Amino acid sequence: MATVSSLLLFFFFFYTHALAVLAAAGNEVALFSHVKSILKRGESLSNNGSSLTLETDCDLVLRDANKMILWNSGSVDKGVECIFWVGKYGVAIVSDVDGSPLWTTGSPGPPGNYAILLRPDGKLRLYGPSIWTFERSASSASVVAEQRLVEAKPPSFDSSGYVMYSSEEFIYEPAVGVMLKHGNYSLVLETSCTIHIRRNNYQSSAEFPVAEQRPRAFRAVAPPCKTQLTTDGQLEAYKLLYLGAGGLDDVWLRSWGSNFTVLAKESIAALVDRGKSGELLIYPMKETIT
Ligand SMILES: *[C@@H]1O[C@H](CO)[C@@H](O)[C@H](O)[C@H]1NC(C)=O
Ligand SMILES: *[C@@H]1O[C@H](CO)[C@@H](O)[C@H](O)[C@H]1NC(C)=O
Ligand SMILES: *[C@@H]1O[C@H](CO)[C@@H](O)[C@H](O)[C@H]1NC(C)=O
């Protein structure tokens, strides 16, 4: 299928993707255009039991938690080496190693940062372009000092631990502590109810203890902070000002916000370890694939 758009994709791939590609490691749920992550043949994205696999015959196959096939791309070509990736125009592509697309999905958007994500509910969606980026370089000091960080309620809905969802079903509210973690970086809701990216001190992992069941007595103590990602793509943190009689009477003060929104049905925030820096990107939903 040698169309004009496939030629464009070809050139785009070879001039911007051919060099440094990061293969998606074991526990990934998403591919990101800005870090050029790819799936190779035999590799998968997986989330909450569902999986998306680039089969050895180049077919992209979505399976549910019972390994039942829900969907496939039909891009079967036994003769070639192929990869799956998302480009900077928001089109997801199974291409051969020469860069010619075997299959694409998604309509081209403005150039930017895009992601393709296998959600915890087993749905495949494209997100982007990102509306907000928050970066922290490895060299900037301020590694966790004396303070003991509590691991937030683990995001059990997402196997990766690096994606946060705006959808109500996926909301979790850490009182304070690590919200997302990817490689050497964490997104932390501080005791001051502000949000920072921190570089983990990988030599003393004790600073990032695994979540423990809190003693019941602690439940009487209200969480000092809460956070949410709104559907229109704003990450916000709130500090508890007054503890009301019931939860509804509590008074919260907005203590931090990413201050940027866009009209969207749903958004995600993803923390990405880029080695020299840790980055949080917020993406509105672009389109559904399955
Ligand atoms: C995770 O998978 C289970 C079983 O397939 C499902 O019932 C549950 O709703 C999924 N979680 C989310 C957040 O979609
Ligand atoms: C974390 O940083 C250390 C030291 O810079 C490095 O050796 C290690 O590979 C990094 N880990 C990850 C998961 O990036
Ligand atoms: C968002 O706006 C508030 C108030 O103007 C400001 O204090 C805060 O630093 C802003 N957040 C970011 C991430 O810039």
TrEMBL record:
PROSITE patterns: BULB_LECTIN (PS50927). The keyword Transmembrane does not apply. One of its GO terms (biological process) is response to other organism. Residues 30-139 form the Bulb-type lectin domain. Residues 1-18 form the signal peptide. Gene3D superfamilies: Bulb-type lectin domain. The keyword Amino-acid biosynthesis does not apply. Keywords: Signal. InterPro entries: Bulb-type_lectin_dom, Bulb-type_lectin_dom_sf. This is Bulb-type lectin domain-containing protein. It comes from Canna indica (Indian-shot).
